Amino acid sequence: MVGKARLALLVVLGVGVVALSAAALGEMMPARDGAPVGAVIKNTKGQTVGSLQVENAGNGKSKITVGVKNLPTGYHGFHVHTKGVCDPQATDPATGSPFFSAGGHFDLGSHLHDHHSGDLPNLLVGADGTGTASVVTDRFRVEQLFDSDGSAIMIHAMADNHANIPDRYRNAEGEEGPDAETLNAGDSGGRIACGVITRS
């Protein structure tokens, strides 16, 4: 009888230690207040073309999972942007690209592309217009997406070159290496879909 009681006590203590360890590490836990974090991604016509989920992955990392449909085939630049406003009517005065309301790439410092905190790998969309991806990053924590003006997820028209321009190429000024647009956004082109990141 004593043996069973001792075993039961050890099991309870073990469960408590495991629970404490998971909480301390933040392993796959929701955002701080427990609410799921994500976004509904819409195109310029206001049609839903995908969804995003963001969660704590432990050790200061965040896991981003995205699924999209009805998008052009190929690789697309995929970034967190600095403002949680997705207005397709707000266009970039220089390029005419929609969703200018979302600002530039989310960044916790003063980095060039592709070292912005919100820079993510390209999103591959198949011939059927669908794509899924999952990535873990240590460049931001979930809670940091909810600053005073929020944040958004953005899908661009073209692939992001991640500022990978060999010196044999020339910029508009005839100089070697990447030009200002490459250093800013990786030549990923116009913004075709956007989603405000929220706690649901």
UniProtKB/TrEMBL annotation:
Entry superkingdom: Bacteria
Gene3D superfamilies in the cross-refs: Superoxide dismutase, copper/zinc binding domain
Cofactor note: Binds 1 zinc ion per subunit.
Keyword match Protein biosynthesis: no
Pfam families, sorted: Sod_Cu
CC cofactor: Zn(2+); Cu cation
Listed InterPro entries: SOD-like_Cu/Zn_dom_sf (IPR036423), SOD_Cu/Zn_/chaperone (IPR024134), SOD_Cu/Zn_BS (IPR018152), SOD_Cu_Zn_dom (IPR001424)
Molecular function GO labels: copper ion binding; superoxide dismutase activity
Location of the Superoxide dismutase copper/zinc binding domain: 50-197
Keywords: Copper, Metal-binding, Oxidoreductase, Zinc
Catalytic reactions on record: 2 superoxide + 2 H(+) = H2O2 + O2
Keyword presence, Zinc: yes
EC number: 1.15.1.1
Function: Destroys radicals which are normally produced within the cells and which are toxic to biological systems. May play a role in favoring mycobacterial survival in phagocytes.
Family (UniProt): Belongs to the Cu-Zn superoxide dismutase family.
Protein name per Swiss-Prot or TrEMBL: Superoxide dismutase [Cu-Zn]
Native organism: Nonomuraea longispora
Taxonomic lineage from the root: Bacteria, Bacillati, Actinomycetota, Actinomycetes, Streptosporangiales
